Each structure stands twice: as C-alpha cells, then as structure tokens.
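Q: I'm writing up a methods section and want to include an example of the input and output format. Could you take the sequence below and give the corresponding predicted structure tokens, formatted cleanly so I can copy it straight into the document?
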Amino acid sequence: MKLIKKIALLAVGDSSWQGGIQYIINIIRAIDQVSEKGAIEVHLFKNKRQIFPEFNLQNIQLTTLLVDDILAPFSFANRVIWFFQRKVKGRINPRYENYLLKNKFDFVFPALLSDCGGRLNSAAWIADFQYHHFPDGHNKETTLQAEKTIGAIASTAKKIVFSSNFCERDADKLFPQTVGKSFVMPFAVYIPPAHLQSTYLQIARDKYQITEPYLMVSNLFGATKNHKTLFEALGILRKQGLKINLVCTGNIINHTDLDFANQILQMITDNGIRDQLYLLGLIPRDHQVALYRMATALVQPSVNEGWSTLVEEAKALGKNILLSDIPVHREQMPHNPYFFESLNSVLLASKIKEVYVAFGDQAFPNRQIEENALHNYRNNLVEFGNTFISIASK
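A: Here is the clean output for your methods example:
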C-alpha cells in the first residue's frame, strides 16, 4: 500500500457540464472528511473557465493551480521533447507527466497518464457509456470522440474508476481489458451547513418568485436527460385539470446539440405547460439547495446515468424523488417508492399525481426529516473518501 500525502486532482467539467465540477468538489470534501489534520495536501489543476467555490476545509491543505500558468508552454522545443517522449518512452501526456514527476505527487485523478516506469500513480475515470447506449444523444463528432477516449482509457490506464457496479459490468462486456484493473467508487454529495440557513429560503423565494408547490429537476438539457417524458406527463395532468409547477435548473444550451434548446421550447408549447415552468438556467449552489429543500419532490427522468448527482442530493436532504427505472437508479436508491418506466409519460403522470395527493399540501422543508437524512448521509461521504484513498494507495 502506498502512503498518500500529495494528491493532484485534474478538474473536469465547466458551465456546459456542471456535474463534472460538482464531482471534483465532492471528492475534495470527501477527502477532507476522512483525513487527519495536515496529513494530506490536494492540488486542484483547473483552467480559467472552470469556476470553483471557496472551500472552508478542516483537515486538508488545498492549492488551486491554473494549468497554463504552471505547465511548460507549447514552444517548438517543448513539442520536440514531448514527441520524443511519446514515441521513444511510451509517454501518454508528457506535458502533465513531467510536471507531476518533478513535483512528486503520490496520486493523480482523474487522468489518462503513463506510469512513467512505475514512478507515477494515477487513475482514470469513466463516467458512463452513454455514447454506446444512446449514440444519438449527442452529435456524431462528440459520440465518436467519447468512444475514442474511453477506448484509450480501457486499453492503457493502469487503474480505472467507475461510479457504479452497472458501469463496471458494462466495461467488462465492451472492453474486457478493463477486468482486473477497475474500481467502483460511488460518489456522495456534500451539503455545506451554511447553505441550510433559513435566510437562503427567503432569498430564493424572493428572487425566483415561486409561491406555489413545485417539482424540481436539475439536469443539463440533453436528449438522454429525458425532459421530454417529464413535460409530456405534466401535459397529461394539465388536461386532467391538474397544474403542477416545475422548476428546472441546468444549462439549456447544449453545446453538443445546439438545436436542442429550440426542441425543448417546442416541447413546452406542444404540451401546454409554459405558464407552469420555471427555466432558471445555471444558478448559485446556495440557491439550488434552498430550492431543493422547498420542493414537494425532485424528479430524475434520465434514460442513462453513471451515478446521478440529483439522486444523491435527494438522499442527503431526505427528499422524495420520482426516478426513472434504469439499473443505475435501482442500484443507487433501491427502496425508492416512486420509480417509473423511463419513457412512459402516462406512468410518470400517475406517479406525480400520487406524490401530490400525499404531499402537495405540506410545507417544505421538513426539518426533522432533513436533519435525520443529513446525519445518516454523512456515512456515505466518509465511505466515499475512504474508497478514494484506498484506490489511490493500491
């Protein structure tokens, strides 16, 4: 087992994929939960487009580094050196590898790097196999790039991390070479105690002017996130005389399918639900948590996930959640009472109605349920942090 004192985290995601940013935030928080004070330092490598919050950490030392400020520049001389290192020494990404070796990092994640003759300890992460299951979910170029990148990870990475057992089983079938070098690390979310202050509830009410009960979904807008089925379900209920508000957060501009925003707006019009939707886009994390807390229930209608952040938010806050019946969701929240067939809008409408009959006249947040959920959920965050350190140490 390797002793882990110095960790490099390479940021993933940006405003077009906020889930990647949140994944790295959750890792930092989880490491902080399980570390002894001063025992581990974490270096976060990011670019200027990747925005992270201020961290108030108890145990680890965090240093944030702008990649273009610290890595060797793309000069002609450096390009020649890197070409030689790739061709002769079998390096994968010498620009990063040289810096990481020089500064003696004990573990790097998530990254596809060579082990540099056993001197560099790293692991790559495969979020899911969406490109395989739903190749039409993005443009052709994005799908082909995903297939190429995941294929490279499968064939060359020394350690590969998946967020669910379902995705690991997918890998076993699609890329048998991953067998024996893969690890499952379900992530957990961290809810900052400051975000649970009552003042944020009023701030969110005032800013977004949502006064009636509502459902909430927080996903980027893309075909696999399946807003279509949710909108159709609300349309079915509207025809029955039941108007249910829906709060949507997430970037409506999908950079892999620029026409999708127009499709979303047309879906809303076709289902006659424009006056009951709140399309908020990307909002501050403290506002998002406040809106979660006040929602009657959350909805996660995706047809494909690697491990859903929204489901983890629901678990942490003790929220009811309407969940598409896909294997990952069954693994993530097996005892949830509100599963629905992912493309069945009639069944989803029935489940929404069931939730509203049971909870539509209640005021949220329910502080006792919330406090119990947060207390119990802390074990998930600790397990996440311990698993991360365990993978790093192998």
